[in-house]
Amino acid sequence: MYSPQAFRDNYFSGLHGLVHLASCSISPRSQFLDAAMKTMLGDMAKNELAWVYFEQQTEQARRLFAEFIGADASQIAILPNATIAAYQVISTLVANSGEQILCTEDEFPSLSHVWLQQASRGLVTRCIESQVSDESFVTNTRTMLGSNTCLVSVPLASFRTGRRYPVELITELANQSQVPILVDAYQGLGAEKINVSELNCDYLICGSMKYMLGLPGIAFLYVKDGIRNTVALGLTGWQGRKEPFAFNPSLVDFPDCAKRFETGTPAVPALYAASSALTALLTLDFEQGRLHIQTLVELAIDILEKGDVTIVKVPGTLFSAHIALLVPNVPALDTHLKQHKIITSPRGEMLRLAFHHFNTADEVVQTCRLICAYFKTQIW
Fold first, then answer.
1. Which candidate, 193, 86, 117, 103, places its Cα nearest to that of 155?
2. CB 377 within 8 A of CB 307
3. DSSP assigned state of 366
4. Which one of 2, 6, 93, 281 counts the least CB within 10 Å of its CB?
5. d(CA 113, CA 31)
6. Where are the chain's structural domains?
């Protein structure tokens, strides 16, 4: 049975008296995170080399993430961050000078900067007009897709506004055009669940923090079976070998699985954290969880708009798990909320409110009413 209160009580007792609406940035401390760090330190205190346990955690994190997205562990690479994951993808795609990378206007800099830097190979990065309805966005994508497209990149959700992109429809278009598609699921996975077999994307990237409830330090890269890179990996390391523990400095070989994209030693604390967080997430009923989070989103929008607070949204689109408010003085409102023990996520001229499975309707009502009252007292 899905119960946000039980999830909160079991894992987030530290939130007593504190409202955390910032999972779009980083998740709060949890009991399973504390337990993971205690386990790691305990493993380091045993009378044998801790690397044995670190390797076990690496494979456990890989297996659990694969289970979470409906993949096989052999399809998952573990990398330091989403930036390197994106680079590993684009740098191994066959592409001729003049070909284009299609992305959105909501691309996170971790990815868009990597795409733009492919200009050194003669590739052109083009943004699909995105501040339009889902229907128009799909039409725009269809219009721009062509034989000169080497990659389509689309986020599950906008890191700025929380707009949930129609990734299922865009993936279908890319597949029809036989163009590789990458889904950046970092801003939403964990609040919702994705099955990559059903989505049929070629690549999916997601880090271990934000809605995934872990620590920064690693990112997962899903690689669809059957993808064979004819461009050799330029960025590699000992973890990307067929037999890493052979420690052969003269042999650079690559396994057939997604591990070929890996580089050096991963961030061990983040591995322990990811395993514990995924174990907790896998206990949830995500069908009910998605409904719960959407209810919180709609509740917040209803209260805020009635209080004349502007929500950044595009007609004909949906939200994932956070919303963004237009605020004339974001630092002032952020400070005001922190004084009331409410943690939110400022981003430029916007203040983001993110909702997770541990959040309740009562704290959303409390926060939104406080924001509305604050707006009424201000002369902007």
1. 103
2. no
3. H
4. 6
5. 36
6. 4-29+284-377, 35-281
Q: Look at residue 323 and give its three-state secondary structure.
A: strand
End-to-end CA distance of the chain: 46
Element (H, E) at 86: helix 82-90
Contact of 337 with 367, CB cutoff 8 Å: yes
Which CATH architecture is the domain 35-281 placed in?
3-Layer(aba) Sandwich (3.40)
pLDDT values of the chain reduced to their tens digit, one per residue, 380 residues: 899 999 999 999 999 999 999 999 999 999 999 999 999 999 999 999 999 999 999 999 999 999 999 999 999 999 999 999 999 999 999 999 999 999 999 999 999 999 999 999 999 999 999 999 999 999 999 999 999 999 999 999 999 999 999 999 999 999 999 999 999 999 999 999 999 999 999 999 999 999 999 999 999 999 998 777 778 899 999 999 999 999 999 999 999 999 999 999 999 999 999 999 999 999 999 999 999 999 999 999 999 999 999 999 999 999 999 999 999 999 999 999 999 999 999 999 999 999 999 999 999 999 999 999 999 998 66
Q: Can you tell me which residue has the tokens 């007792």?
A: 13
Q: With the CA atoms of 109, 115, 120 and 124 taken in that order, what torsion angle do they form, in degrees rounded to the nearest 10?
A: -120
Tokens 């456990």, residue located:
60
Domain 4-29+284-377 and domain 35-281, same fold? Reply is: no
- C-alpha 114/C-alpha 91 separation (Å) is 10
The confidence score (pLDDT) of residue 229 equals: 72
- What separation in angstroms does the CA of 342 have from each of 17, 146, 150, 152? 9, 47, 44, 38
Could you give the residue ranges of the DSSP H alpha helices within 145-227? 167-176, 196-199
Provide the 10 A C-beta neighbour count for residue 234.
9
Which residues are CB-neighbours of 354 under 8 A, at least 6 positions away? 21, 22, 23, 24, 25, 162, 211, 321, 322, 345
Q: Provide the token pair at 96.
A: 């001729």
Considering the segment(s) 4-29+284-377 as one domain, its CATH architecture is Alpha-Beta Complex (3.90)
> Does residue 205 contact residue 174 with C-beta atoms inside 8 Å?
no
Count of residues making up the chain: 380
